[in-house]
Specification:
The chain has 20 helices and 4 strands. Helices cover 64% and strands 6% of the residues. It is an alpha+beta fold.
């Protein structure tokens, strides 16, 4: 019987197709599983790499920093953590061929924005007391900008007040010269009456020398008047740019005080015409003086060469001879200004100007609490991150996040009032000033604190009618009852600015003593009277202010100063301090070697399980990234 094999062949072919399909499906699933396994292994290895963060940075600053001097360290570490996964790959049959770091982001990159992010990530789990919301942060920034603008304008107008006082002193010099001329003229007239020719000649020469001073004095007066007007016009332009940061109410108050300067300059016009007419008038009077002196010489010659005709000759008629000189002398007209000078109490004015001088000479010794010692610490900033800070955009965080950043700094950095002692102690002050010496940082911070407090104090004075009246009363004493009304207004505003400065000095002294001071002053929280202000100017010492539980302490004001500073600069200076302190235990630690984020590309060789033929391996690429 003949047998047929169609069914067997068909079944064999069918089974071959089925087995091929099943093996293909299994291989495909295995390859997908291999890729999944490889991705999981790569991510786990990267997690392990980033788990080797700098422990001291975490302990001291709660920051995750992966220290790696170059990409090779990251790659080698990742390969090391990948080895167990490759060895245990089982039926996936994998082996690492190569790897490269395709991206590495350092903590110092991008203007320090990654440091900001780490700080915000950490601080969101903390408790922050008295933290304003977004609107509160905006209002705070607005108040700080207003205080800064008011302080800048007040300083400009204070400078104009001193210019006005110098102008008055120039006029006083002219008046003194004219009074001296009058005294010489009267003295010479008496000498003529006494027939004292030599004394008259000497006095007449003194009068001429005094008159010779007038052109220079008039020139000085004119220069000072021109400079005052020019600077006042410049301040007006400056006022336009700063007014956008000042509330309408404060703009109105500032305008009222500034009007006195315009009035003073305008009223000086007629007075200046009279002053500038003096040199021409003096030239005419000097000609008359010369004529009188020449006639006096003739008279002396007549007397000396008189020939007596007989014994009864009584000599020349002295009354007639010297009377001819006196007739010429009486033709001299000594000028008298119809305008009086406005500063009648220069001593008080000088005391106020002396307080202004404190800011120029340095405020630290004035506000430093008795018995306090200033740290002499210093740092070497050659390797600091801020030394290599590049230009360009920095971190972009909102106002509320900036407040969180400042709160972080206040918790992890020390300052003047901190109890912790360090070689370089004023770390928060460094963030504001960036100087290498503690003392220099403190000086800069004290100056900026005084400026902020001066602006806020002046805002209060301008808003308080009682204090404005007190300032006007003292200005009236300085200028006198008959003084120029516009000058009284100028001096009054100067008194207000100095008063605000004096109160600011007391405020900062309180802060350095560990006390609090109100950000927005009221009559209850005001410390300095005008009599105390004058005493401060005389002695250079203040009795301090009233302690209170309400207000902001020194650390709080440092945070306000940071709020006004550039965020990018703050980030790098914070990294400076972190590096400086971590170098105490690890001398070669550098923030620029700390990785925030990395991406690695790996090339893996995997083996086919069912196929392959002459090429049983196939390449698999994997990418993994990690950021703190």
């Amino acid at each position: 019987m003949k047998k047929r094999g169609q069914i067997t062949v068909f079944l064999s072919l069918a089974l071959l197709c089925i087995f091929s399909l099943m093996c293909g499906l299994i291989e495909s699933a295995r390859m997908a599983g291999a890729r999944c396994y490889l991705k999981l292994a790569a991510d786990s290895a990267m997690d392990s790499v980033f788990s080797e963060y700098h422990r001291e940075a975490w302990d001291q600053y709660r920051l995750f920093l992966l220290e790696a001097k170059d990409e090779k360290e990251i790659k080698d570490s990742w390969n090391q953590f990948m080895e167990p996964y490759m060895e245990s790959s089982g039926w996936y049959g994998m082996a690492m061929e190569s790897a490269e770091v395709s991206d590495r982001v350092l903590i110092t990159d991008d203007g320090g924005s990654h440091l900001d992010q780490e700080i915000l990530d950490y601080m969101k789990y903390g408790i922050i007391k008295d933290m304003p919301d977004g609107d509160g942060a905006a209002d705070l920034l607005k108040s700080l900008k207003e205080a800064s603008s008011v302080e800048n304008l007040s300083q400009s107008y204070a400078g104009h007040t001193k210019e006005a006082v110098r102008l008055e002193r120039a006029l006083e010099d002219i008046n003194d010269c004219l009074r001296a001329q009058k005294d010489y003229w009267e003295t010479a007239q008496r000498q003529l009456g006494n027939y004292n020719g030599s004394g008259f000649q000497e006095t007449a020469r003194k009068l001429k020398r005094e008159m010779d001073r007038i052109p220079a004095l008039v020139t000085t007066y004119g220069k000072r008047a021109d400079q005052l007007k020019k600077n006042l016009d410049e301040t007006k332009r400056k006022n336009e740019s700063l007014s956008k940061n000042i509330s309408p109410e404060m703009q109105k108050a500032m305008a009222e005080e500034a009007n006195s300067y315009d009035t003073y300059v305008n009223q000086d016009g007629p007075r200046r015409k009279q002053v500038e007419a003096l040199p021409e008038h003096i030239d005419i009077q000097k000609t008359i003086i010369q004529q009188a002196m020449e006639r006096a010489e003739e008279v002396e010659d007549i007397i000396d060469n008189w020939v007596y005709d007989d014994e009864e000759d009584s000599g020349p008629d002295l009354s007639e001879l010297w009377g001819s000189v006196e007739d010429i002398w009486n033709r001299i007209q000594i000028s008298v200004l119809s305008y009086s000078t406005g500063v009648k109490d220069p001593e008080k004015q000088k005391i106020l100007e002396q307080i202004e001088g404190f800011a120029e000479q340095g405020l630290l010794n004035l506000v430093l609490p008795e018995g306090s010692q200033v740290s002499k610490g210093m740092v070497n900033n050659s390797s600091f991150p801020s030394a290599s800070m590049s230009d360009g955009d920095g971190a972009s965080i909102n106002l509320l996040e900036r407040l969180v950043f400042e709160e972080y700094c206040s918790r992890f950095l020390t300052n003047f009032c901190s109890e912790e002692e360090k070689e370089f102690k004023y770390e928060m002050e460094y963030l504001i000033s960036g100087k290498t010496h503690d003392e220099d940082n403190l000086k800069r911070v004290v100056t900026e604190l005084v400026a902020i407090r001066e602006g806020m104090n002046l805002i209060h004075i301008l808003s308080d009618s009682e204090k404005r009246q007190e300032a006007n009363a003292l200005a009236s004493v300085i200028t006198g009852v008959t003084g120029l009304a516009p000058l009284t207004g100028v001096i009054a505003f100067f008194i207000m600015t100095v008063w605000a400065l004096g109160e600011a000095i007391v405020d900062v002294q309180m802060l350095l003593e560990g006390k609090k001071t109100a950000f927005i002053k009221s009559r209850e929280t005001w410390n300095l009277t005008l009599s105390n202000l004058l005493e401060l100017g005389k002695t250079g010492k203040s009795s301090g202010g009233k302690a209170g539980d309400k207000g902001i302490d020194y650390t709080g004001y440092l945070k306000l100063l940071m709020f006004l500073s550039d965020q990018k600069v703050q980030n790098y200076r914070l990294m400076d301090m972190i590096q400086w302190n971590l170098c105490k235990k690890q001398g070669d630690f550098r923030m620029e070697n700390c990785v925030y984020q990395a991406e690695i590309k790996g090339n893996v060789k995997a083996k086919h399980l069912f196929f392959g033929g002459s090429s049983p391996f196939y390449p698999v690429d994997v990418r993994t990234e990690k950021a703190y």
